[in-house]
Amino acid sequence: MELGRTARNRIKIGTRASPLALAQAKEVAGRLAAYRGLPDDCFEIVPLTTRGDRLDERPLPEVGVKGLFTIELEERLLSGDLDLAVHSAKDVATTLPDGLHLSAFLPREDVRDVLISRSGYRLWELPPGAVVGTSSIRRAALVAMHRPDLDVVPFRGFVGTRLKKLENGVVDATLLAMAGLNRLGMSDAATEILNPHDFPPSPAQGAICIESVVANDRITDLVSALNDAGTADAVRCERAFLQTLNGSCRTPIGALAVCHGSEILLRGLSIDADGRNPRRVAVRGARTAPAALGEEAGQMALAGVGMESEPV
Ligand SMILES: NCc1[nH]cc(CCC(=O)O)c1CC(=O)O
């Protein structure tokens, strides 16, 4: 393959400029180099500040949630300035711009959320009125479901910034994805790993994906070496569930799909923003049509059928 021979045709990998996103882009460049036998210097990592980063001080639900961290990267893919973009799959809007596709998924990291608390308390041990910082409507709703007596406040910024704010006493506890902590080498910060039944993760949590131009066969072929089929199927199933339910983008949704041989098992949850009325759904189906299964589960949740009664 005539790749990376000169500076001019280096493969440009776009990413958010956060430390986590940069670590993920480096991981992708390293794997591509290793799997394709290419020199490291044939990749150029291009960090971009996204709208979501610029709106750092405002709570996310106010500024519209999806696509905030990806739009700038997508524009540059379409203009040809970038060859591929590396994203946390959970930050990618369920509908992509025409001409782009998710061309590979890396093997999924830990899918779970963790609680990080200053005094080492677990979620059920936090004193009444303790302040929990999160700007995720899903995490806020799940905290309210388990601990309606806690005070949830907006809390944003890069992972390291949030941990510093926690240390400085701005909040008593916060919630983060274990995957991000692992990738940053900060897993020691976790106080309690929350189990996915009590605290369902975001659809696509823990998965890194590559987005690129559909018509660019060279890039589609290049990145195919990185694709993990089980992760791709599970995430496509979860994203279809989210897309089916997410008319308003305001409904807290959790979802986790797991592949077992030729089948996928999907468990999903939707819940009111105040933590009331959790609605759970579970479906099992063939791996041949992951998105159809996710959509079916979404339709069931919308219709209120096939729901599991509480507690499960
Ligand atoms: N929205 C920020 C974001 N996007 C992906 C991750 C974690 C990494 C992952 O889920 O793969 C995080 C931080 C967090 O939620 O703790």
TrEMBL record:
Describe which pathway this protein belongs to, using the record's wording: Porphyrin-containing compound metabolism; protoporphyrin-IX biosynthesis; coproporphyrinogen-III from 5-aminolevulinate: step 2/4
Domain Porphobilinogen deaminase N-terminal, by residue range, is 11-218
Name the catalysed reactions.
4 porphobilinogen + H2O = hydroxymethylbilane + 4 NH4(+)
E.C. numbers: 2.5.1.61
* Alphabetized InterPro entries for the sequence: HemC, Porphobilin_deaminase_cofac_BS, Porphobilin_deaminase_N, Porphobilinogen_deaminase_C, Porphobilinogen_deaminase_C_sf
Task: Write out the GO MF terms.
Answer: hydroxymethylbilane synthase activity
Keyword field: Porphyrin biosynthesis, Transferase
**Domain Porphobilinogen deaminase C-terminal residue range list:** 234-302
Q: What else is known?
A: The porphobilinogen subunits are added to the dipyrromethane group.
- Name the chain's protein: Porphobilinogen deaminase
Query: Which species expresses this protein natively?
Result: Rhizobium brockwellii
The uppermost taxa in this organism's lineage are:
Bacteria, Pseudomonadati, Pseudomonadota, Alphaproteobacteria, Hyphomicrobiales
Q: Which gene encodes it?
A: hemC
